[in-house]
Amino acid sequence: MAFKIITDSASDVPKNIIDEFDLHVIPTPVVIDEKDYFDGETIFPKDFYSTLEDKTKDIKTYHINTEMFKSNFEPYAKSGDEVLYMCFSTGVAGTFNAANLAKDELLETYPDFDITIIDTKCASLGFGIPVYKLLKMQRNGADKETIIRAAKHFTEHMEHIVTVETLEYLYKGGRLSRLSFVVGGSLNIKPMIDIDENGALKAFAKVRGRKKAINKIIELVGERGKDLEDQIIGVVHGDREEEAIELAEILKEKYKVKEVIISYVGCAIGAHTGPGVIAAVFEN
């Protein structure tokens, strides 16, 4: 019997960390021209963004469903392992409810199955970094109860500051009116987006131009971040690696940040924000 920390691919945990800790990442589905692909298994971010920019492709996403969760959870139930599943925000997708339905169904067959499912109310490295920190705690000998308490604390104190390169995907996904899309596009408006207390994406400001939007991210990391010199923070991007590296370097230099993890925004979020999304995630 073992205690396992697992997550889903919307956490955008980089491959080197997945490999280092042998982390089980449940893949998020994406549908391209009516064919199912799985984020991090049968499609990878760089290829996904190339596909996304091809306007002839029909791309949809759906959350990990109950049957998928059952197939991922059942091996742990069979072997008597205890599990902590760090889940994508309910404010963005129905993942949490599907996971709990799977848990309830498995408990009928495996009544002693011990699984804790945490709605992180976070997205991307907003819960990927907490997962990484929990794995390091476990490696250093922390017990299950300490890790679960830490998981709740970490996710309750994450900030996400996001901007997009184009309004097209927010409009397509119904998160933007046609008027805002047309006017915003013509004026080169870039929304500043964070995640509210319910774990939902929320636009809180608008700036004109990409450079001002990225400068706003830098400014808000300083305003909202706590003890940045002791933090692991994340910079995530939609196939804009050079820009992400530059942003990470600025944050390290300006705020003496301990460590910056750079990762792609995966399919689960990228399909709705488009190529060029860029964000910083950190603790408040």
Describe this entry's structure for a reader:
- The protein has helices spanning 15-21, 45-52, 66-79, 95-109, 125-139, 144-156, 168-172, 178-186, 210-224, 241-255, 267-273, and strands spanning 3-8, 24-26, 29-32, 35-38, 59-61, 82-87, 115-119, 158-163, 189-195, 201-208, 232-237, 259-264, 278-283.
- The chain is an alpha/beta fold and 284 residues long.
- The strands form 3 sheets. Strands 10-9-8-13-11-12 form a 6-stranded mixed sheet, sandwiched between helices. The protein has a 4-stranded parallel sheet with strand order 2-1-6-7, sandwiched between helices. A 3-stranded antiparallel sheet has the order 4-3-5, with helices on one face.
Summarize the structure.
This protein has 284 residues and is an alpha/beta fold. Helices cover 43% and strands 25% of the residues. The chain contains eleven helices and 13 strands.
Distance between the termini: 36 Å
Structural class: alpha/beta
Find the count of extended strands (DSSP E, 2+ residues): 13
Strand order, largest beta sheet: 10-9-8-13-11-12
Q: What string gives the helices and strands in order?
A: EHEEEHEHEHEHHEHHEEHEHEHE
Give the low-confidence spans.
none
Strand percentage, roughly?
A: 15-25%
Specify the biggest β-sheet.
6 strands, mixed
Please tell me how large the radius of gyration is: 19 Å
Helix percent reads 40-55%
The shape is: globular
Total helices: the number is 11
The overall pLDDT, averaged over residues, is 92
